[in-house]
């Protein structure tokens, strides 16, 4: 089975945000969509390892900022390569607006947002799917939404070159130099594990 074919499915990229007791957090997701028109309902699938996932499980509310083609790689580094458990992802970042639900939406590198309130969860093993009623939203204008393919072609930096062989992270391009990659190795850039590395 060639799982790489899944990369050809057309879908976008988003900053998922939540707030609990005044603490803001966000992460990058790529599985968000409208599921019904009347009433307007959406779904978001979120990895259980993300701190934002835990906030949504406890509060039942979230925002999704739609990443645009104007976004740069720094947005992905800020919200995708660190954990909110030990990092304030919004420190020094004021390109946001606080929405009616009290949760931040990201304005820089994003073309709009959706606010939502969860009415059902589905356990998908590694992820939880949040089914939610749309409670708000806004259009920031600007560039078109960025697709996953656009990100790989135009935003994500090209892979580093290994000097003498090694292992390359398929997520961010970091290269571990060495003959054997430790099975418990975690990428120092994007925090993905050894399963996401390939020999170069």
Structural write-up:
The strands form three sheets. The protein has a seven-stranded antiparallel sheet with strand order 2-1-5-8-9-4-3. The protein has a three-stranded antiparallel sheet with strand order 11-10-12, with no helix packed on it. It contains three helices and twelve strands, in the order E-E-E-E-H-E-H-E-E-E-E-H-E-E-E. 12% of the residues lie in helices and 37% in strands. The longest helix is centred in the first third of the chain and has 9 residues, at 51-59. The protein is mainly beta and 200 residues long.
| DSSP summary: helix tally | 3
The overall pLDDT average reads: 90
Instruction: Sketch the major β-sheet.
Output: 7 strands, antiparallel
Could you tell me the radius of gyration in angstroms? 17 Å
Briefly note the structural class of the backbone: mainly beta
User: Span from first to last CA?
Assistant: 21 Å
The portion of residues assigned to helices is 10-25%
Shape: globular
Strand arrangement across the biggest beta sheet: 2-1-5-8-9-4-3
H/E element order: EEEEHEHEEEEHEEE
Task: Please tally the β strands and state the result.
Answer: 12
Strand content: 35-45%
Show unreliable segments: none
């Amino acid at each position: 089975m060639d799982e790489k074919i899944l990369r050809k499915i057309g879908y976008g990229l988003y900053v998922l945000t939540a707030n609990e007791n005044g603490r803001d957090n966000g992460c990058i997701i790529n599985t968000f969509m409208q599921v019904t028109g009347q009433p307007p309902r959406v779904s978001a699938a979120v990895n259980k390892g993300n701190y934002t996932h835990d906030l949504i499980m406890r509060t039942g509310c979230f925002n999704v900022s739609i990443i645009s083609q104007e976004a740069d790689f720094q947005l992905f580094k800020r919200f995708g390569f660190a954990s909110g458990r030990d990092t304030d992802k919004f420190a020094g970042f004021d390109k946001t607006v606080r929405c009616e639900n009290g949760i931040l939406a990201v304005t820089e590198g994003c073309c709009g947002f959706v606010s939502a309130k969860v009415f059902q969860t589905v356990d998908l093993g590694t992820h939880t799917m949040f089914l939610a009623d749309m409670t708000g939203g806004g259009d920031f204008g600007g560039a078109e939404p960025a697709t996953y393919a656009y990100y790989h072609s135009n935003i994500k930096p090209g892979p580093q070159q290994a000097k003498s062989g090694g292992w390359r992270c398929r997520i961010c391009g970091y290269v571990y130099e060495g003959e054997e990659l430790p099975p418990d190795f975690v990428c120092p850039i994007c925090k993905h594990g050894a399963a996401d590395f390939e020999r170069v």
